[in-house]
Amino acid sequence: MNAVHGAEELVAFRTPTSPWVTVGQVGAALAASMGIGRFVYTPVLPLMEAQAGLTPSAGAALATANYLGYLVGALAGIVLPALVRSAAVMRVSLLILTATLALMPVTSNETAWAVLRCIAGATSAMVFVIAVSAMHSTLSGHAAHLSGWAFGGIGAGIALSGFVVLVLRSMSTWGSVWWAAALLTLICTLAAWTLTPERAPTAPAAERRRSRTQGHRRFSALFISYSLEGVGYIIAGTFLVAAIDHTAGSFAGSGAWVIVGLAALPSAPLWALLGRRWSRPILLVIALVVQAAGIALPAVADGMWPALVSAFLFGGTFLGISQMSLRIGAHLQFPRAVAILTTGYSLGQIAGPLIVTPLLSDGYHLALLVASGIVLAAALAAALLTARFRQRATVE
Questions:
Q1: Class of 19-197 per CATH?
Q2: Metal-binding: present as a keyword of the record (predicted)?
Q3: Residue 291 has pLDDT above 90, yes or no
Q4: Residue 92 CA: distances (Å) to CA of 96, 99, 122, 358
């Protein structure tokens, strides 16, 4: 029995011969769980409004259901940390996520859609926390740009989902988009199947207590900033395509989402490389300010070019913000930092659609302006972190 257990443990904690293997596996997991599993809803939302009779308020409710599920998954990573180290949990979560996408066109009931999106959110969060924790554990001794390329999997998934909508929207229905998304998620699931989970922590209890005390204030400032970013970014992430659809046309909306993904793909390694020369908290403030400008642009200027520039700025910053925030949290050695920060982010994402739902009756422009202001507030919180802890919060 011990021999069998030992063999299973050896397989579970097998280390890839090349760090690029981990990069590919994490990238595939993040593409499935986030880039496609969560964000395909953004470009398919206008199709569901046009073809399935979904109202803007109902669309916001479905988004909130997804974010509520995401919160549940993130909390599970805090309450049951063993889940974060389980390859089986990651694999089952990916399969369930794929099934929820495939089942969306099977019904036209909004309650059923909400349940499916809630389950999709929970499984997405579990895969995200497991994959990012594994990435930090496995790639901690390697070049910073490697983790950036792994995060780029989210951008690749977004670009793929946007391209699918761009191709299918003129020749098929909203349901076919969900089925195509399920197929892409399944392919990514197979690529991520052998990802090595994070090992159990080995630091002595006294050392962990000391790290928690030293990093508490810095982590609090980071938590506030990242939670506010969750509010602002998800408003744009949910309604940006619909807003551009209303002002610049449906082709511009779908095309903008492809640009978001293409800009996101190299952005994380670029921010990681910049972090080797400059303080990451300072870079975090810069990224948040640039993102706020990008979110506000379609609300103050109509037309194709403002839409495309907005998509580029949004796509080029949101992964870098997540990567830098989680990297700083890991550097502070705060217990279960990834799961806790993801929980704050999740709470923000739940609040985001609820905050702007009363504003949607007159279109999406005012919602984008509110989102931009909230992201600026996140930049102020990050600036406080930078002012007080500039040297010690820098991650190499």
A1: mainly alpha
A2: no
A3: yes
A4: 6, 11, 12, 37
